[in-house]
């Protein structure tokens, strides 16, 4: 009886962990991402496109985490969008946990790069790291294909916030 209870408990915990992982690092389509950005009102979204295997991407992640933390009382949302293939979902989740990332992390669930790259930005060659700044109420959509240091990231964010003030 005791063994059955322990097994049931273990299954419940594992099921909860899987659900939490799915919620913590969801697979999203480009349409779902665009809907989130378009429904953001006055929120400035900073969408960082990255992959676990991209060293410059990983190196700049703390700057995005810091930006969100320092401007937590402002209408700002940093979203990390992983370009790792959906089949590496568990590896991305483990990476997120190991790095202790606090911002939202999504995996782009799109198969055809030739289709989604120009939809994100006509300027995008497909190289990463890349970042998209969006504020729909200000009509802002700025794409940047570069690695950021904190000072440049903060300057770019503040330039958007200060528009039309």
Characterize the structure shown.
- This protein has 165 residues and is an alpha/beta fold.
- The chain has a single domain, classed as Glutaredoxin (3-Layer(aba) Sandwich).
- The protein contains six helices and six strands; from the N terminus they run αβαβαβαβαββα.
- It has a six-stranded mixed β-sheet.
- The longest helix has 23 residues.
- It is globular, with a radius of gyration of 18 Å.
- The N and C termini lie far apart (67 Å).
- The N terminus is likely disordered.
List the helices and strands and how they pair.
Blueprint: H1 2-24, E1 27-28, H2 30-38, E2 44-50, H3 55-70, E3 76-82, H4 89-99, E4 104-108, H5 113-120, E5 130-135, E6 140-144, H6 150-161
Parallel strand pairs: 1-4, 2-3, 3-4
Antiparallel strand pairs: 2-5, 5-6
In short:
The protein is α/β, with parallel strands linked by helices and 165 residues long. The chain has a single domain, classed as 3-Layer(aba) Sandwich (Glutaredoxin). 48% of the residues lie in helices and 19% in strands.
Question: How would you sum up the major sheet?
Answer: 6 strands, mixed
Strand line-up across the major sheet:
1-4-3-2-5-6
The helix-and-strand class reads alpha/beta
Q: Tell me the CATH topology.
A: Glutaredoxin
Compute the gyration radius: what is it?
Answer: 18 Å
Tell me which CATH architecture applies here: 3-Layer(aba) Sandwich
Please name the fourth-level CATH homologous superfamily.
Answer: Glutaredoxin
- Summarize the helix and strand pattern as letters: HEHEHEHEHEEH
Count of DSSP helices?
Answer: 6
Distance between the termini: 67 Å
**Multimeric organization:** single chain
Give a count of the beta strands, DSSP E runs of length 2 or more: 6
Low-confidence stretches: 3-19
Given the C-alpha coordinates, what overall shape results? globular
Helix content: 40-55%
* Assigned CATH class: Alpha Beta
Count the domains.
1
Averaged pLDDT:
88
Beta-strand content estimate: 15-25%
